[in-house]
Model the fold of this input.
Amino acid sequence: MTVAEGITTLLFPFQWQHIYLPLLPAPLHHLLDAPVPFLMGIQRRDGAQRSTLELSNESNLCFVDIDNHRVDPPEDLPLFPDQLELIQEVNEVLLRFGLQPYGGSTTTKPAPAAPPCLSSLVLEDLMEDRRNGNLGGEELAVLERLQALARRCGGGGMAGGKTLGRAFEEEEEELKAAKMNVQLREVFAGRFTSMFGRYEEFVIHSASDLESWLGNREGTSNFDKGSFLSAQPTTHLHFLSRFLETAMFSSFVDSKVLSRWADQEPLQRVFDRRLERERLYNTLEDDPGNRLYRKCTVLHESVQAMERRLLKADHTAIHPHLLDMRIGQGRHQQGCFPRLQADVLAQGHHTNKWSSRYIPKRPVTTETTSGLDNDQREKFSPGRILCQSKLLDPSPSAVTQTQRGFVEGLLRECRVKTRHMLMERMGKESVELGQGEANITGLQENRLIHSLCDLLERTWGHGLQLKQGRSALWSHLLHYQANEEKMESPSNLYKPYAFLLCEEEREQFLFHLLSLNTVDYLCFTRKFTSISIPYRVVITPMKKLSIAMTMSNPWVCVSGELGDSGVRQIPKNTQEIIFQCQNLGRLSTLQLGQENSGLLAKCLVDCVIVHNEITGHTYRFPCGRWLGKGVGDGSLERVLIGQLVSPGGEEDSGRWTGTPPEQGSPPQSGRTGSLGSLSRKLSSAQVQEDTREAVNNLVKHFHKAEQERGNLTALLCGEGGLVRSLEQFLLHGFKSSRLFQRSVFIWDFVEKVVVSMETADQMGDLRESTELCDSLCHYANAINASPRNIGKEGKFQLLVCLGVRDRLLPQWLHLLAECHLTAVQYEKSALVRDRAAVHTLSRVLHTLHEFPIALETALVKGVDL
Done:
């Protein structure tokens, strides 16, 4: 019981919100099946080991063996922030009071007892009170002689065989324990003050009145968890992300919001005053993200405050005195309790002249909100399923009612959690490729998923007949796998009151879980990096043009944030392949190619779809270009940029039936790298705006926290990326002398400029900087010499990416604009011939020089630069 009380005391300013039974009686052992957090004390009998306890949800339990001084935490329990420093500070406090860590004690000799102080005054006070004492003069004289004799003998005997010195030693030990208790509480309170010193800045006050807040409490968030976590040190995130999901933190924040309309919680009032004092003395860190461990500095002051409280009397007791009664009324036989006088007891309180000596006690707040009616209190009740009195009733009807309450609580928790997960994730799928603002991080995803896994574990562990492993859910899945055809009935595996045997609640539970299929979570993909995952790849040709798909030994290579799959050959006469490899993480690029088998092997590819068979994530890699010799830009290999398909989206309909779904073909004019109608239709203002937006997206990418960043390759090479915008800039105003001609690519113009520079350099007519010209020629020739046949579009894309990485792109842009071929190839209204436009674009590109840009291997493979 002392350990349980100590744990709840050290939680200040938070309060334990769940089942609390410091000593669990034997008739109530069924409460160990409770699918809710609990704090219970179990008595060890006859040296029994912990393994003899049949607990269904053991994987989520923390065992504290008090006798053996051992703590057995759950496997995934995060470390407390600055745990080693905190342990060291606690040990220092224990050593100051003569206690060794881990339950030992010092061997130092105790200090000699001080002279009797309080206890020795008892007889003296009694003897000096001759006027009011009930004893006569003779009896008092006897007491005086007894006390004098005790002083001469040095005994100072008291009742029960204890001496006055021993009694004083016990009082000193109690005072010492009280001082240690205060200092330990201050150490932990200091840690919570450091972690949550600025929590008020992240509290969301979304309601204008109490009724609207109570009515929309489940659908609104009262605390900005994402912003709070982003301001914390990286080493603290694992613990804090889990702690923010606890009921006691939610109740703490709710109480803060509620304090606008009702009295503030006593503990929260004390905590807020402590924070005000910390701010007054400027002891709170201005930058929580770089917080250093700071030991508690008020240990001595806290002990002094406690001693002052002990010296201040809470109650002034009166000396023994004669009652105001008639002579003879107080007589009684020796050893018998005297008969009470009715007329004395009937006197009112107003006649008590000693009432003014009592110090009024502070009223104890039993509800979290004073001043609220019963309905409002019921709405505000922070998730306690059953009151403590019902839990302690061992009758069968009470046990059934208790378990029924657990079932209803699990269903309610499932509804709230799934709704919260949907609200957190809805509308955020568009930021996965780095476009837009990311409001949810991978850490927050892990927090939400862990909370759901904890709920599932408690649900499957409720009412389990026999524990078959640390995880009840995993044991159930293994049992199902081994006995899929002859699986034992759930009624034989679970007790009658188990959640899984409540048909209606089970159906609603599954309905809430299925609602999560409408959003995507990537935490599994990021977390389990070594797991083997099957991927399905489907190549979709452009069917609207009725062109048969003729490819010679096609192959794919899928790349993600954790690696690539290597080259995977697609079987003949098929459009798809299923392969298994180590988890690739979130997919980013896909290389699609074929062998050089002549002009007949060509195909107009609409897109390539990759499906993760375990997580269900689908990625679409748009193409819309030819693959083959003598057609398009003559590419035999394409590097495609992936897009995560939203669940339930148009591309996701009917997956997966073995045949690729019908895809809407993007307009051919929308393809980049060639002179088309789109480049002519775009105005110069639109082209410049697209370029500025592409660069701005890259700048915002690097200014975000690392865990919030999207896919850099998509910002460079995807739709709306930097490569696309620069192609639009260079295609603007490009001359076309014939109505019917082969597509003109920017790479053709770059090659002509390179040849012109090399010729001018040989003849000594080069007017530009030799170093810059040499760099452009060197990069262009290296790309042309690459063994990869990536086509003209791919070559220009690679040139732009290398120029951004090596901080050469703005200088190359000036070279292209100043070349004499530009006046021949471009109209006068072209942007590349506008010195102001070129200068502005160069300044915009210069903003990328301060960021380190790392290119994926799929982009630069085969080029040694």
